C-alpha cells in the first residue's frame, strides 16, 4: 500500500468534549516529541498541515444532556473535511488530538471515503473506555464518552449526520481493545448492539498476540484499516499524561506488540492519536511514548529475525 508512505498530519487542538482541560495542547506536544522527524527517519513523506481552527472551549455545564454540542459539531465537521481531503489526495491522515470526541469526524470521513472507493472498513479502537455512552446514560454530558455510539447512529442528529450517511459505520466493523472502564448502562448498550470488545481481562487471559490475531482477522487487500489510538489505552505508569487515567492498561511491551502486529498487516490507512494531555504529563513522557508506538505502526521493530 502506497498511502502509508505519504502522511498528512492534522492537528485538532481542542478539549471541547472532555471533562478536563489540556488535551487542546496535545498536537503541539506530539510535534515537540518529534513525530514528523521520527516518521521521516522511516522513509515516510510527511506533510504537516498545522492545526485546524474551531470554537474555543466555553466550559459550560450540559444543555439537554450534552456539553458544548454546537462547538463539538463545528470541530468534528472541520476534522471530517480535513481527513476526507487527505484521503482524496491519496495520503494517510494522522489526526493529532484533541479529545476523543473528534474520532467521530475522523472515522465518519474514513467511512465516507470507503463508500466512495468501494473499500471495506475495519476500525481498531484502542482505549480504556468503550466511548459508547449516550446523553441518557451519562450525567456528565461530556461528548468524548460518546463518539462510538454516535458513529453507530446513536446520538444527536447534528453529530450522527456529519459523514453524510446514518449510521456512519456498522458496529460489526469495530474492534475495541484494552477496555477497562465502562459504565453500567453503557455495558448493556454495548452488548445490545454487539460491539466486539477485547477488554483487559481478555488480554490478561489470552495475551496480546491472540487478541490482535482475532482483531485483525478476515481483512483482505480491499480493507481500509483505521486505528483510533486513545493514549489512555496505555497503563498510566508509562502514560500519565491523560485526563482519565485508568490503572491496569497494556504494558509497554504489550502495546509495542499491538502496534507491530498492526504494522505487519500493511493495511493501516488512517490514524487518530487522541487525549494526550501535556498539562497532566511529566516532562512530555507520554508524548514520547506515543511517538515511539506510532513509529512501530510504521514498521519500526525490535525484531532480529530475518
TrEMBL record:
Its EC number is 3.5.3.1. Binds 2 manganese ions per subunit. GO terms for biological process: arginine metabolic process; urea cycle. Pfam families: Arginase (PF00491). Mn(2+) 1 binds at residues 100, 127, 129, 131, 230. The keyword Manganese applies. One of its GO terms (molecular function) is manganese ion binding. One of its GO terms (cellular component) is cytoplasm. Pathway: Nitrogen metabolism; urea cycle; L-ornithine and urea from L-arginine: step 1/1. It catalyses: L-arginine + H2O = urea + L-ornithine. SUPFAM superfamilies: Arginase/deacetylase. InterPro entries: Arginase, Ureohydrolase, Ureohydrolase_dom_sf, Ureohydrolase_Mn_BS. The keyword Phosphoprotein does not apply. This is Arginase.
Amino acid at each position: 500500500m502506497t498511502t502509508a508512505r505519504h502522511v498528512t498530519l492534522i492537528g485538532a487542538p481542542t478539549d471541547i468534549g472532555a471533562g478536563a482541560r489540556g488535551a487542546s495542547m496535545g498536537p503541539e506536544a506530539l510535534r515537540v516529541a518529534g513525530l514528523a522527524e521520527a516518521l521521516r527517519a522511516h522513509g515516510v513523506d510527511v506533510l504537516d498541515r498545522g492545526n485546524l481552527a474551531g470554537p474555543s472551549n466555553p466550559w459550560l455545564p450540559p444543555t439537554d444532556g450534552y456539553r458544548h454540542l454546537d462547538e463539538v459539531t463545528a470541530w468534528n465537521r472541520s476534522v471530517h473535511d480535513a481527513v476526507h481531503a487527505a484521503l482524496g489526495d491519496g495520503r494517510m491522515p494522522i489526526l493529532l488530538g484533541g479529545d476523543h470526541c473528534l474520532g467521530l469526524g475522523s472515522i465518519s470521513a474514513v467511512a465516507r471515503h470507503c463508500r466512495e472507493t468501494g473499500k471495506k472498513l475495519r476500525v481498531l479502537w484502542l482505549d480504556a473506555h468503550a466511548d459508547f455512552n449516550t446523553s441518557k446514560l451519562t450525567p456528565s454530558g461530556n461528548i468524548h464518552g460518546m463518539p462510538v455510539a454516535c458513529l453507530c447512529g446513536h446520538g444527536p442528529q447534528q453529530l450522527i449526520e456529519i459523514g453524510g450517511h446514518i449510521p456512519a459505520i456498522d458496529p460489526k466493523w469495530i474492534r475495541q481493545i484494552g477496555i477497562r472502564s465502562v459504565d453500567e448502562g453503557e455495558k448493556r448498550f454495548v452488548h445490545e448492539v454487539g460491539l466486539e470488545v477485547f477488554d483487559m481481562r481478555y488480554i490478561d487471559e489470552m495475551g496480546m498476540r491472540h487478541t490482535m490475531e482475532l482483531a485483525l482477522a478476515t481483512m483482505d487487500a480491499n480493507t481500509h484499516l483505521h486505528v483510533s489510538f486513545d493514549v489512555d489505552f496505555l497503563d498510566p505508569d508509562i502514560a500519565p499524561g491523560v485526563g482519565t487515567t485508568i490503572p491496569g492498561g497494556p504494558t509497554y511491551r504489550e502495546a509495542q506488540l499491538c502496534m507491530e502486529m498492526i504494522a505487519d498487516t500493511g493495511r493501516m490507512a488512517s490514524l487518530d492519536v487522541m487525549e494526550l494531555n501535556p498539562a497532566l504529563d511529566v516532562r512530555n513522557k507520554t508524548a514520547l511514548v506515543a511517538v515511539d508506538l506510532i513509529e512501530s505502526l510504521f514498521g519500526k521493530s525490535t525484531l532480529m529475525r530475518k
